[in-house]
Specification:
Elements: E1 2-10, E2 21-29, E3 32-40, E4 43-44, H1 45-53, H2 57-63, E5 72-78, E6 84-94, E7 97-108, E8 113-114, E9 116-120, H3 121-125, E10 139-143, H4 156-176
Antiparallel strand pairs: 1-2, 1-10, 2-3, 3-9, 4-8, 5-6, 6-7
Length: 177
């Protein structure tokens, strides 16, 4: 199942900015989730939770059926600033031994902001109980994607043509005087 949508989000302000608006692109391709901030403030954790409970809920349910082949361990690393790194550890079999592996699934700043998300949904599920609960309201509204076919590239020739067309009345007026 795939999804590709853009959302306008009204969210709590935090950190040094008072901006409460974000526009994010959300893509789900199979079990891979990608969230990119297209405009405005970074995504607040409350808005991320609202996306997971709203437009992404069905994708989470589907990802919950994923069967792992390696044992995993979830860890949340916290820093002095309040930042949190959500790390998944797993063991990979190499002959009769195991090799440890790890990757960061999600990073949330000390101001509860998320710059972007690139993660495997079954890994994210391990951390759902670690995400915060917020009382502030979050509004999510789907907006249309920009159609690049409504734009065009200007070559040097096209730009020169526009300049000549613009200057031609001024040139003819100057010649008449």
């Amino acid at each position: 199942m795939t999804m590709r949508k853009i959302f306008s989000i009204s969210q709590p302000a935090s950190g040094w900015t008072h901006s409460t608006r974000s526009v994010v692109g959300v893509e789900v391709n199979g079990l891979e989730l990608s969230i990119s901030v297209l405009a405005g403030a970074h995504l607040h954790e409350a808005a991320f939770v609202a996306l997971l409970r709203g437009p992404l809920a069905e994708h989470l349910r589907r990802a919950a059926n994923y069967e792992r082949v390696n044992p995993v361990r979830a860890e949340v690393e916290s820093g002095m600033s309040g930042r949190r790194s959500f790390i998944v550890h797993w063991c990979e079999s190499v002959g009769s031994f195991y090799r440890p592996k790890r990757k960061e699934v999600l990073y949330i700043s000390g101001f509860d902001k998320i710059a972007g998300v690139e993660c495997f949904l079954p890994d994210l599920i391990l951390f759902l109980p670690c995400l915060g609960e917020y009382d502030e309201p979050v509004e999510i509204r789907e907006i249309p994607e920009i159609d690049p076919n409504q734009y065009r590239y200007f070559s040097t020739g096209s730009a020169l043509e526009l300049v000549e067309e613009f200057l031609s009345p001024a040139t003819s007026d100057a010649e008449e005087r």
